[in-house]
Specification:
With 683 residues, the chain is mainly alpha-helical. The protein has 21 helices and six strands. Strands 2-3-1-4-5-6 form a six-stranded mixed beta sheet, with helices on both faces. Helix 10 links the parallel strand 5 and strand 6.
Amino acid sequence: MENNLYNFKRIQVVPAAADFIDIVLSKCNKGVTVVHPGYAISRIRAFYMRKVKFCQQCFHDKLTKILEDFPLLDDIHPFYADLMNVLYDRDHYKLALGQLNIARRLIDNLAKDYVRLLKFGTSLYQCKQLKRAALGRMCTLMKKLKASLVYLEQVRQHLSRLPSIDPTTRTLILCGYPNVGKSSFINSLTRANVDVQPYAFTTKSLFVGHMDYQYLRWQVIDTPGLLDHPLEDRNTIEMQSITALAHLHAAVVYIVDISEQCGYTIHQQVELFRSIKPLFANKPVMLVANKVDTKKFEDLTDEDKALMDAAGKEAGAPGMLMSTMTGEGVSEVKIAACDRLLEKRVNIKMRGKRMVEVRNRLEVTVPKPRDGRQRPAYIPEAVLANRNVQAMAEEDGEDGAQDRKEEAGVAAAGAPPKSIFEGTPHYSRNWVEMGPYDQQKDPLFLFGPEWKEQYMLREDEHKWDRIPEIMNGMNVADYYVEDVDDAVEVLEREEEDRIMALEKALAEGSWDDHDLTEEDRQALAEWKKKKSKILFDHRSKKIRNPGLSRRQSAPLDTVQDMEDHLESIGIDAKRASARLRAKSRGRPKSRDRSASRGPQDGDVTMERSVSRSRKRTRSELRGVSPSPGVASEQMLRQAVKRSRKSQEKRNRNARAGEADRSITTKMPKHLFSGKRGQQADRR
């Protein structure tokens, strides 16, 4: 099934019985609620029939939505079905949903009966009483569902808090006694933040974390602690772990606390492992000894070692050592568990029917020989020896194979039995301090060959120093002196002084560049260009507008200042100053156009129109102050015209400005006067 079927957070809230009734009746009271005795009886009947049908439809839709949101235990994955049985009781859950289904059917039948009766109503009073009876009986049915609705709302709240577990994806399940380190292990592998406390049963429900391995997404499930007693005596917390172990196809990591700080002996933990061993069927299992930082595996008694070895061999589980406190062996356990599960899943897929179909579609291409030379396939000697042994075993039959097993047992009688923990790396030092690479110390090939072996130094012993020799038998530490900070500070000050002296010489023009080569001159020119560009960009960003306005800066720059400046650089300033002085002379405020010519017919009208246009222009420009960006009076007049044109939209809406949000008329008369129609909203 798809994962979205198990997204229980989408279930809508289940209202209480009283709230349920209020919601439905408030919907029924919307629309037309007034009828008069003067209406025709057919109209009155239709009105109350619509009321009953609408109320029945509201109840039907609400109940149907609840029944569709809650999952059916027969249609979901067995893991979720059993988990809901453990948490909420399957019978109680089905009974609550069944009561809602029966109530929905009864409400539908009630509506049909009363609609049939309303067809024969003879008066307004009789139809109204039938409607009241129908709605009353529907509400009575809903009141009887009070307990079921409350129970379903509690189930919905708890379901929404359940972790999203995908029963079909790659999964690691952590199990064991309480307080053995399961939550610490999942916190170190994933980004889950499971609470870790030094007392038993800190984890009371299933927690899920996610990690990546070999470009695949994995989920790690932390289960509550288990105790060694019969299945019927287990509580709800323990049954969640049993449900996950029974239904999820995952790799099981059984964690044992060899320090016995959890309060349970190794013998008790091994007995629990054997009691739940039937749940490990067809699953890769690993027996992991935790807290080796507190008590080493070598310090255990021979009896405890024999117990763990026997339990691991019975279940076919390899043994691993780790410490979640220091992180030793955590990554090795993760890699080993993931690899075993991947191998198991691949084997299952290879035995499936789909692989047969894929294999039938494959076509093997046989290359044609390019010459007459024979090129047989190379088979290693070890593989040939193994084939010979298998062929001899097939020829001898079961009796010969049994005889060889007995001979091998007699030959190995004097040697101690191999432990499942033999060959597990015990890391007593940090991996950075490891000596030359030894594959026996790293059987899982986690760190790989040490690159320090490739160092070419005078002495091979120096390869494994923390800081290898770099030159003349010395390293970085040999060049460090006590007053190195003071020496660096002196060098920095000297460099700053030299840079300041160079900049000063460049500014004064006293610096001579005859000693520079052509490349140095090009580099210097490029440096100057880059520096000037940086200064220009900085000033343009910092000062966007001039500090002084035109009106403020105008008195500072006089015509005499300009003359002095032009004469200092050897330019005749007479013509320029005369032109500026001519422009600075003011014009008369008014000019009589008729003064140059005599009065003629029609001049009076023309003079009046011209004077009116001049007055209008002066009144328009009276409130506008000159700006540095306005070059002429025509441009100023055009700017005023455009500003007024931009205000036309606001003036049309009667707004004082862009920030005006006032509503002048609160209640327009055309919307709040006159008689209301029958379809008006009267809320």
